[in-house]
Amino acid sequence: MKLCEIRDNPGAHKRKQLVGRGIGSGKGKTSGRGGKGQTARSGVRLKGFQGGQTPLSRRLPKRGFVNIHRLNFVEVNLGQIQAAIEEGRLVAGQNIDIEAMKSAGFFKNSRDGVRVLAKGSLTHKIHCTVSGISQKARSEIEGLGGQVTCVKG
Asked: Is residue 62 part of a domain?
């Protein structure tokens, strides 16, 4: 094999279609965009247009609201923490905080914080520092002699 013999695979490069080069080319005159008007222009589309009748989004009643201040927590269960301790990804004697959970592979991005929930059971005494915790999970951790610290963010 020589440097001058190197070629791309057949079909790897497709030639760009030249538009607007005469009617005989097949893509002349309107360049494949149909007639004139809004749809022939670039960047403009009639999104949600339903032929002049009132669009469905305006016919249906509006309900509820979206709370823009709502915090989006990552949820971690006690069963997950117990499994990570048994696998050696977390150490029961050390403080289990957001960074320790992240390095243990519970999540990639902690979003607005971590909230511990009571799904599953815990057999080890742990000390955890999290953004939020359910009452049942707190009572289970403290029942084993552990500590829970809630921090913001």
From this structure: no
In a domain, 126, yes or no: yes
CA distance to 5, 49, 68, 87, 96, per residue, from 133 (Å)? 65, 47, 22, 23, 13
Give the pTM: 0.59
Please tell me the total count of domains within the chain.
Answer: 1
Distances (CA, A) of 85 to 6, 131, 136: 54, 20, 20
Q: What is the pLDDT of residues 74-128, one digit of tens each?
A: 999 999 999 999 999 999 888 999 999 999 999 999 889 999 999 999 999 999 9
Vertex 16: Cα angle to 10 and 18 (nearest 5): 140
Query: Which of 115, 47, 48 minimizes the C-alpha distance to 76?
Result: 115
Q: State yes or no: pLDDT of 64 exceeds 80.
A: yes
